[in-house]
Structures are given as C-alpha cells and as structure tokens.
C-alpha cells in the first residue's frame, strides 16, 4: 500500500502539469497555434512517409506575425 501512497501525489502533479500546459497553449495567439501545428506536422512527416503515407506539410510564412 505504501507504493500507492507515493504514486498518488505524483499522478496529481502530472495531471496539474497537463492542465497548466493546456491553459498555456489555449492562451497562445492564433498564428502561434498554427506554427505549433506546422511543427508537429514536420515532426510526424518522416515517420508517416516511412510507412508509405503521402504527407503534405503546410507551408507558412514565418515572417507574418
């Protein structure tokens, strides 16, 4: 039972961190959210291509605020 007692605070900390990150991401301006999505696409593209999937990463102008 001691293992469960030490696990509960850690799980609570992880959930709190997850919620804080979601609030931080939700507060980002829309152009920054799009940049995040494009970065995720760039990260996933090599894996998907290796699986034989056709992948098209959005092209955005980084200089537009």
What would your notes on this structure say?
- This protein is mostly helical and 65 residues long.
- It contains two helices and no strands.
- It has helices spanning 2-26, 30-50.
- The longest helix has 25 residues, at 2-26.
Helix content: over 70%
Mean pLDDT: 91
Shape: flat
Structural class: mainly alpha
- Helix and strand pattern: HH
Distance between the termini: 53 Å
- Largest pleated sheet: none
Which percent band covers the strand fraction? Answer: under 5%
Number of contiguous helices: 2
- CA-atom Rg in angstroms: 18 Å
The strand count comes to 0
Low-confidence stretches: none
Q: What is the strand and helix layout of this fold?
A:
Blueprint: H1 2-26, H2 30-50
Highlighted features:
single chain; 65 residues; mainly alpha
Quick rundown:
By secondary structure, this protein is an all-alpha fold. It has two helices and no strands. Helix content is 71%, strand content 0%.
């Amino acid at each position: 039972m001691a293992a469960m007692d030490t696990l509960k605070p850690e799980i609570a900390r992880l959930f709190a961190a997850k919620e804080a990150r979601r609030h931080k991401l939700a507060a980002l301006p829309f152009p920054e959210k799009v940049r995040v999505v494009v970065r995720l696409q760039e990260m996933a593209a090599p894996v998907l291509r290796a699986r034989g999937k056709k992948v098209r990463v959005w092209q955005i102008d980084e200089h537009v605020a």
